[in-house]
Amino acid sequence: MSITSILEKPSFTRNDIIQLLKLSGNDEKLLFKYAAKIKEDNIGNTVYLRGLIELSNVCAKDCLYCGIRKSNILSTRYSLVEEEVIEAAKFAYDNNYGSIVIQSGEISTKSFVNKINNIILQIKKITKGQIGITLSCGEQSIETYRTWFESGAHRYLLRIESSTEELYYKIHPNDENHNFQTRLNALKTLKEIGYQVGTGVMVGLPFQTIEHLADDLLFMKHLNIDMCGMGPYIEHKNTPLYEFKDSLIPLKERFNQTLRMIAILRIMMKDINIAATTALQTIDKIGREKAIQIGANILMPNITPGKYRDSYALYENKPCTDENAEDCKNCIDVRVHLVNHKVGYGEWGDSKHYKNPEKTSQI
Ligand code: SAH
Question: Which amino acid residue places its CA nearest to atom 6 of ligand 1?
């Protein structure tokens, strides 16, 4: 079957997706062009901003790929104080970013839960409810998710990392603290509470196959997500998975595979929000712009106070750790215009999918 006839199908089979993930050269260009058109027709060429605040790298988890895992004693731990977070949020507000994302290592102590709650309440107060708040603080109890939602957070990002249970346990310790089913249930709980829910995976992990990636896309479709963040896996030398670095596909190929994943997902889920992730920029200086051109519509400029950025090292060579929020601001507008898009200043830029009356829940 020709690529065009696959692209025009009303829905993709697993085999279709596998075929699309393997494309290169002119056929790959056809995929990208088709995805760009789907985006333009369904959600337009506006890119929405989420000022990213990396609140803390203190983490109770030991994910085998992650530089801020609990057992990495070489990581310098930090937690922003409330005032620093509020100040960063105020920067986003003053510069018309529309939304922020608060991301952190995974902790669920009472003091952490209360801290996040106070921060949400204060941000809502000082911005007169005008800043949208996305959280990315890992697995928490139903009560915690509900409290944060009631205080004003309305989007939540929790990557499943891999939707194949077997692969999940190759990249996480197989214990109570890293339970696949718990993570899946957390996503379902977040949906039930009413959040716009985002998930995602890393692309190019050791042991990962094209079939795993195809299943990840089908998983997202089945879960009927509102948002997605996918990025290439980038090895970190102080993590257990580093041992498998010689078995990885080259960085450039991980990058291209991520772009194909984004383009295919855009065709499968026409009106969701898809982020152009920072990890793409680590491999290619204009990696995020390339993602925007082929289907992504969300950018997350870092607004974490500059002095902490080096410490939030999920992977190595993270970009822009020597910059401050002010530097990013100037850079964003130029970058977005370069790829013939415009920035949706002052707007929440919610996932259209969430509000789509035809959206049927499949949980
Ligand atoms: N603790 C939060 C989020 C913090 S990490 C949570 O559990 O949701 C944010 C994301 O960074 C993770 O979901 C993971 O997909 C990604 N990440 C971690 N280590 C990485 C690596 N080595 N390469 C690429 N992405 C990585």
Answer: 138
Cβ of 198 below 6 Å from ligand 1? no
CA pseudo-torsion sign 150, 80, 273, 228: negative
Residue 37: inside a domain: yes
Per-residue model confidence as pLDDT tens digits over 210-230:
999 999 999 999 999 999 999
234 lines ligand 1 (CB under 6 A): yes
pTM passes above 0.85: yes
Of all atoms in ligand 1, which is nearest to the CA of residue 106? 1
Domain of residue 27, CATH code: 3.20.20.70
What number of CA atoms fall less than 13 Å from residue 58's CA on the CB side?
Answer: 9
Whether 355 is covered by a domain: the verdict is: no
42 is a domain residue: yes
Q: What is residue 359's predicted lDDT score, i.e. its pLDDT?
A: 67
What does DSSP assign to residue 128?
A: T
Q: Is 224 left (phi over 0), alpha (psi -120 to 50) or beta?
A: left
pLDDT at 286 over 70: yes
pLDDT digits (tens, 9 = 90+) for 52-65: 999 999 999 999 99
**What domain range is 305 assigned to?**
3-348
Q: Is residue 139 part of a domain?
A: yes
Ligand 1 geometric centre to CA of 41 (Å): 31
Cβ–ligand 1 contact at 231 (below 6 Å): yes
Q: How many domains does the chain have?
A: 1
User: Cβ contacts of residue 240 below 8 Å, gap of 6+?
Assistant: 64
* DSSP per-residue codes, 256-271: HHHHHHHHHHHHHSTT
What pLDDT score does 362 carry? 44
